[in-house]
Amino acid sequence: MNGTPGGRPKERNIKVGKYQPSLSASYFKKEAESSPLIEVSLPALSGPDQGKPWVGILRKLTEVGYY
Question: In 10 A of CB 43, how many CB atoms?
Answer without folding.
Answer: 9
